[in-house]
Design brief:
It contains 17 helices and 13 strands. With about 400 residues, the chain is of the alpha/beta class. The protein has two domains: about 260 residues, Rossmann fold; about 80 residues, formyl-coa transferase, domain 3 (2-Layer Sandwich), CATH 3.30.1540. The protein starts with 7 loop residues before the first strand and ends with a helix. About 35% of the residues are buried. It holds the Pfam family CoA_transf_3. This is Formyl-CoA transferase. Its EC number is 2.8.3.16. It comes from Ammoniphilus resinae.
């Protein structure tokens, strides 16, 4: 049995933040129905690469879901949505604020039909505040939260994180908020509304940076791979690339000096005596370390770090990551069978639950693939009625 078996979710989201949240709910056993618009469905379906005309990007983030296309601008389409909503535990949507109200599928409307509904809205800036009316994508949220001002090399152009960090952080925020609301519902029978934004979700992750500002008035700037509060804790140039060193406490620093660079005299060097001094003199420390590291390969230094039990490692390219023996041994590359694209690979499930581990139970759906199943099994529609809905452009 999966932990969320029995939870019914209506997923009205697209692109990344909302779909990531509902994917994890599906991985943990929830019955996720993806309600997609007519025509075209989720915009991600039109993002490459494609296998047999099916988007691999869509496949990666929409597994363990069923798909029903629904024209919510028709009265019949809205009625079908209401029927599904009455039986649902969770609704997740990421329309621009105000759209669900204009469609008549907002929280207040659904709560009147189903007081136990957990209704989560994911948007760029939230449902309230002076920017709530603005559309927002991940890169705007990275810019507004200050993330781009402190990513990249000192003095360089602003750089976004390599992944859609604010999208994913919003998906994770929505996920744990829904789970908390679901626990509350199990205790009381009462649902609630959840307002999640890309901006606040990403901002909440900047704990060290906010500490620097609130504690010392320091405005964080770009530091490359350096840490703001620890050293040595960054990438160092080697003979054939770079190696990462995590000497993030005094014990690791001393092991690094003795067992890796074989410079025990650095331990008592006034420039490097404490973490504070090492951070203050980080440029000198970098120069001293790289003068040694430059004579051997990355693999050599990774091995030395491992032998000295100092955290360290290479900077992999993504193909190296997805073929790394540790990643494979931990089950982070999985295979599934797609009805049109055939056998495909996907990322695995990162949390390893001992009693109720998540499962990849089904491939991402083709557009509208489960219309008959949902309408007949969940709502009792006859084949003739379903055909009429198709002819009328409702589904």
């Amino acid at each position: 049995m999966l932990p969320l078996e029995g939870m019914r979710v209506l997923d009205m989201t697209q692109i990344m933040a909302g779909p990531y949240c509902t994917m994890v709910l599906g991985d943990l056993g929830a019955d996720v129905m993806k309600i997609e618009r007519i025509p075209g469905g989720d915009d991600t379906r039109r993002m490459g690469p494609f296998v047999e005309n099916e988007s691999v990007s869509f496949m990666m983030i929409n597994r363990n879901k069923k798909s029903l296309t629904l024209n919510l601008k028709t009265e019949k389409g809205k009625q079908i949505f209401y029927e599904l909503a009455k039986k649902a535990d969770v609704i997740v949507e990421n329309y621009k604020p105000g759209v669900v109200k204009s469609l008549g599928i907002d929280y207040e409307t659904i709560e009147a039909m189903n007081p136990g509904i957990i209704y989560c809205s994911v948007s760029g800036y939230g449902q309230t505040g002076p920017y709530s009316h603005k559309g927002g994508f991940d890169i705007m949220a990275q810019g507004m939260t200050g993330l781009m001002s402190m990513t990249g090399e000192p003095g360089g152009r602003p750089v976004k994180a390599g992944i859609a960090m604010n999208d994913i952080s919003a998906g994770v925020t929505a996920l744990y908020s829904i789970l908390a609301a679901y626990v509350h519902k199990m205790k009381t029978g009462v649902g609630q509304y959840i307002d999640v934004s890309l901006v606040e979700s990403g901002l909440a992750w900047s704990v060290w940076e906010s500490a620097a500002y609130f504690g010392a008035g320091e405005v964080p700037t770009a530091t490359g791979s350096r840490h703001r509060m620890n050293a040595p804790y960054q990438a160092y140039k080697t003979k054939d690339g770079y190696v990462l060193v995590g000497g993030a406490n005094q014990r690791n620093w001393e092991k690094f000096c003795k067992g890796v660079v074989e410079k025990p005299e650095w331990i008592d060097d006034p420039r490097f005596l404490t973490t504070v001094e090492r951070v203050k003199n980080v440029e000198e420390l970098e120069q001293c370390i790289e003068e040694i590291f430059i004579h051997e390969t990355t693999a050599y230094w990774v091995n030395k770090l491992d032998q000295a039990e100092v955290p360290g490692g290479p900077i992999n390219t993504y193909d190296q990551t997805l073929n790394d023996p540790h990643i494979l041994a931990r089950g982070m590359v999985q295979e599934f069978e797609h009805p049109r694209a055939g056998k495909m690979k996907t990322l695995g499930i990162p949390a390893k639950l001992s009693k109720t581990p998540g499962q990849i139970r089904m491939a991402a759906p083709m557009l509208g693939q489960h219309a008959e199943k949902i309408l007949s099994e969940d709502l009792g529609y006859t084949p003739e009625e379903i055909q009429q809905l198709r002819e009328n452009g409702v589904i």
